[in-house]
């Protein structure tokens, strides 16, 4: 498939890869050369091991259950609850409340991170983290034969529309993704944060990256019978 063919199913496929491009970079794959990477059997085995270890996915039912969780809840739900609570407090009250939480707990780190990002992100918050992983599971689920390629594109298409409506562009999407990853991990080091930021920076600055080849505002054509917004 030509990576410059930006129409129909090809465009949906490009967007699918672009949404999870940070995960590609993290795992040592080139999002601009996806088809070649997927033709290597060892990479398919690597995905299978990752699915089992990180997601508990061994079949189609497992895959669909994880996709449903990402669509209906994801990590954004916890982030948004904390954000909503802190938003009702003054700056001083926010600090006082967070400092009252035991500092060795995950809860303390989560509240700190939400406070750091709550005014830097749009209403969608860290939805980019859930969107990116949803796209990744769809793409790799098709590679491993859990679903067809056509089904993966059908599932991803409404996700693209959600991303386009939720964020103003790839830079804002990337910030939401980074914040989501840190929120999920809850114990990022300065080095790991810099490494993650580097992946996003590469996608933003590389003129040949999908992030710079896909126009953010251009909507995908709707497919008859397409499911409604899965993140509503």
Tell me about this structure.
- The chain is 67% helix and 0% strand.
- The protein has 232 residues and is mainly α.
- The chain has one domain (8-213).
- The radius of gyration is 18 Å and the shape is globular.
- It starts with 7 loop residues before the first helix and ends in a 19-residue tail after the last helix.
- It comes from Paenibacillus ehimensis.
- It holds the Pfam family DUF1266.
Percentage of residues in strands: under 5%
Q: What spatial form do the alpha-carbon principal axes imply?
A: globular
Q: What is the N-to-C succession of helices and strands? A: HHHHHHHHHHHHH
User: What is the strand tally?
Assistant: 0
Radius of gyration: 18 Å
- Tell me which oligomeric state these chains represent: single chain
Helix-strand makeup class: mainly alpha
The domain count comes to 1
Q: Provide the helix percentage.
A: 55-70%
- Give the distance, in angstroms, between the N- and C-terminal Cα atoms: 32 Å
Summarize the biggest pleated sheet. Answer: none
